[in-house]
Design brief:
The chain is mostly helical and 358 residues long. α11 packs antiparallel against α14. It is globular.
């Protein structure tokens, strides 16, 4: 039996991507807690957290976002523009309420604490994943308007990635008010996490994968083959890196190396994403009943949960740093779980009260 059909077979939500997004948001919360509240001791736990906090979180989320662009019913260029603008506004509002406001209060009333949270402008204009998502939707709206096919979008994103990898340092001498908006496109300073040129390849690949997945007749066979290919590729990439002296630990632990996504970093991160997606499919087959409902709820409300966790954590970080409080690794894991539970609970309450903005 043919594995791929000319007709569209798979429509609606693909549960493996609900599973992927649920894991991604948990990994994001854990790595954010560790990077801001836990004593850095170079322990195996730290490396494990940084591993799951890189490609398995942001990379998988962006890949899933691209697939969602294929499966959504709201897929016109106008829909994507609206979604992009909404995400950008949400991202900057989040920046204000998770850090800028608290920093302004500290600067005004608690200068003696010695807390240095950076500049107000930098905290407000920080280019995080919501800013990236908004910019990505605007790019995809343009590509849709131009009626570009998925492979064309992928080629453009590869060229953007290669060009973007050459740009770090170009704006080192520019004033902050120039660096920060340019950071939406390329890496300019420490306030740039996910510049579009370096990261657009993830949703572009998700779009290509989504178009292929729509035509898959036998998903079990498809994902078994995908898993074998991804496993062989991941082993080959890591072996190759070892032979030529590329340190994968640097990808995990060096912030600039990860965020700038130079070709070796990109290749390694994509190999991890490629390995996880088929694994999530087989994990998803074992999730049933109320557990499946719970996973779908997290996936459907991912943005809201993400925003709430940062509102809680961002302001707590300011308080903890003002008082020089840091956690051990085990306490950090417990704190991460607490933030996750609180975020999901507050999301449920938010939706219950029908306060729908995010």
């Amino acid at each position: 039996m043919r594995m791929i059909d000319k007709k569209i077979i798979n429509t609606g939500r693909q549960f493996e991507f609900d599973v992927a997004k649920a894991f991604a948001v948990f990994f994001m919360i854990v790595v954010h807690v560790f990077e801001h509240t836990v004593i850095y001791d170079k322990s195996p736990l730290w490396y494990l957290v940084e591993f799951f906090g890189c490609a398995p979180s942001a990379g998988v989320f962006m890949f899933a976002m691209g697939l969602g662009m294929v499966y959504t019913r709201h897929d016109s260029p106008t829909d994507f523009v609206r979604r992009g603008i909404k995400l950008l506004i949400s991202g900057y509002l989040l920046n204000f309420f998770r850090q800028t406001l608290a920093l302004a209060v500290v600067n005004a009333f608690f200068k003696e604490s010695g807390y240095d949270g950076g500049s107000l402008l930098g905290s407000f204009m920080f280019v995080d994943i919501l800013q990236f998502a908004g910019t990505a939707f605007l790019f995809m709206a343009l590509f849709k308007k131009l009626e570009l096919r998925p492979w064309m979008i992928l080629v453009i994103s590869i060229v953007m990635s290669l060009l973007g990898s050459l740009t770090p340092g170009l704006f080192d001498n520019a004033p902050e008010y120039i660096q920060l908006p340019v950071g939406l496109l390329i890496y300019t300073n420490s306030q740039t996490a996910f510049p579009a040129m370096q990261w657009l390849i993830y949703p572009a690949l998700g779009i290509c994968f989504g178009h292929l997945l729509q035509h898959v007749k036998d998903k079990d066979r498809f994902y078994r083959i995908a898993l074998v290919i991804a496993l062989v590729a991941a082993l080959a990439i890591n072996a190759g890196f070892l032979l030529i002296g590329i340190d994968t630990a640097e990808i995990l632990m060096e912030v600039m190396v990860y965020y700038t996504q130079a070709p070796p970093t990109l290749i390694w991160c994509l190999s991890v994403v490629a390995l996880l997606i088929p694994l999530y499919y087989f994990v998803g087959k074992e999730i049933r009943g109320k557990a499946a409902v719970f996973v779908k709820y997290i996936s459907a409300n991912l943005t809201t949960i993400y925003v709430i966790h940062w509102l809680l954590l961002g302001n707590l970080i300011t308080i903890l740093k003002m008082n020089d409080i840091e956690f051990s690794g085990v306490t950090g894991l417990a704190f991460s779980l607490l933030i996750l539970i609180a975020s999901i609970s507050l999301c449920f309450l938010w939706k219950k009260l029908s306060m729908r903005w995010l």
